[in-house]
């Protein structure tokens, strides 16, 4: 029997908080991959941010050895994946390296929006799915009903669902033989030329780019001469190995295995995720199917607080993009903030995570501008533009039409909250599509919604109105014409391009007045008066003044001629006029993010 017959590659997929990482902990314990003294909760979530937020952000590969009752030893390559909708790209990449998936569903909450999305993705990828109903120890658990839901919605046999409590360890030992029996072994050709898929990568200061690979055909040996097919970049293997879960060096990676290759490559841009690695001599090799390039949906500007840190920010973005290829960036300049970058993300949480990683891992201090979506603009000259930066929107006279991106949103909710959630969607300019009952108590609501309306606090409102029971998943649908206008903020007559935003015509006045009020509180008082104005459709729609600080210049005048006091006050007034002409107002970071909390229902 070939070594491949004893390999099983699988990932764990689920909605957020359904227990993926806890189940991974139990599997690591049952296979004795980690010594009991080194065990901790969510051991695969090694990033500080992941442990703080209690969510998985990056996929985490690990190799486990399982001794089956038939006497054979099986190699399990597990990839733990994120559950949040913003990190779906990570999930899709992990699936390309697997033959099967454990679908984890909470026994009390049942099938959620992201459960459906991940399952359909796994089916499209041709994976064998093992349903695992978790948290059966909870008093509110209803495993039989959830098994029925899985049978009805996903078309999987009722009897195939495994009932477990990852927290207590109940039933987890039954998962290991199920993986052996139900998930097929890798089907690669051991004697063919090497083909390895790069499904992730990180940068190491000493070993260059570390490529995380799944060997599809052939094998990789230490010190072998290899090349990246797409970039045609040759390199010598400095080191290779597997994850246990720390890196463990090996002499060879066999066909079907998952591991890492230290390439020594310092040119970060030459190692795209989804590339195929082969031997330096192999020619006319059929490329492995890579990954579809991600399309960012949320954009913002990122600028260093200190202008001298621009080069450090450039290097940091290059290194981080190697580990997270789902965000895009390009240089831009701002009148208010100087040199920086325009970044595109898969969602608002993704944006927060990238900014925080840049600050923590690279020691940068950054200013982030107001997030926005990309608008499709048709000009008088017949040109079609995609505007990611509101400051670059053409003048009203040059615009024929503006279209904004719409999504198809699926909301899974208990029936008692249907009315509140429909009202929420309608307040956000949503178009109703359909309503489908999962069971008598839960439904799937489908709406078309403008992406800009759900980008900020829609998810929080959804959880608040449904007491935490509703869930959301969405896909980009299309662009639709809308009455959008540019809202500008002026400080002392100067337009602050970093605070510009594009809003719906009906919401411009409320957004403008709300933003001016917020900025009045956030901008510190100066030695001169600061005038804040909101402008839309060529007219000022709101104004507020930040009163100047005033020095008590007559404090030492005890009695005497009143003209003496008057002279001091006149002199102070003249000085303030000069300050107003040359004074530059410093706007704090909170001001750029204040747009997010203004003008919402």
Please characterize this protein's 3D structure:
With 601 residues, the chain is an alpha+beta fold. It folds into 5 domains: 3-182, Rossmann fold (3-Layer(aba) Sandwich), CATH 3.40.50.300; 195-279, Elongation Factor Tu (Ef-tu), domain 3; 298-371, Alpha-Beta Plaits; 376-481, 2-Layer Sandwich (Alpha-Beta Plaits); 486-496 and 506-597, Elongation factor 4, C-terminal domain (Alpha-Beta Plaits). 25% of the residues lie in helices and 33% in strands. It has 14 helices and 31 strands. The strands form 6 sheets. Strands 11-10-16-7-8-15-12-13 form an 8-stranded antiparallel sheet, with helices on one face. The chain has a 6-stranded mixed sheet with strand order 2-3-1-4-5-6, with helices on both faces. Strands 21, 22, 23, 24, 25 and 26 form a 6-stranded antiparallel sheet that branches. Helix 7 (310-323) crosses helix 8.
Architecture blueprint of SSEs:
Blueprint: E1 7-14, H1 20-30, H2 48-53, E2 60-67, E3 73-80, H3 88-95, E4 100-106, H4 113-124, E5 128-134, H5 143-154, E6 162-163, H6 175-182, E7 195-204, E8 208-217, E9 220-221, E10 225-228, E11 233-236, E12 239-243, E13 247-250, E14 252-253, E15 258-262, E16 276-279, E17 298-304, H7 310-323, E18 328-334, E19 338-345, H8 348-362, E20 366-368, E21 375-379, E22 384-387, E23 399-414, H9 418-427, E24 431-439, E25 442-450, H10 451-454, H11 458-465, E26 471-481, E27 484-491, E28 494-495, E29 501-504, H12 508-522, E30 530-536, E31 539-546, H13 562-582, H14 589-593
Parallel strand pairs: 1-3, 1-4, 4-5, 5-6
Antiparallel strand pairs: 2-3, 7-8, 7-16, 8-15, 9-14, 10-11, 10-16, 12-13, 12-15, 17-19, 17-20, 18-19, 21-22, 21-23, 23-25, 23-26, 24-25, 27-28, 27-29, 27-30, 30-31
Helix pairs in contact: 7-8
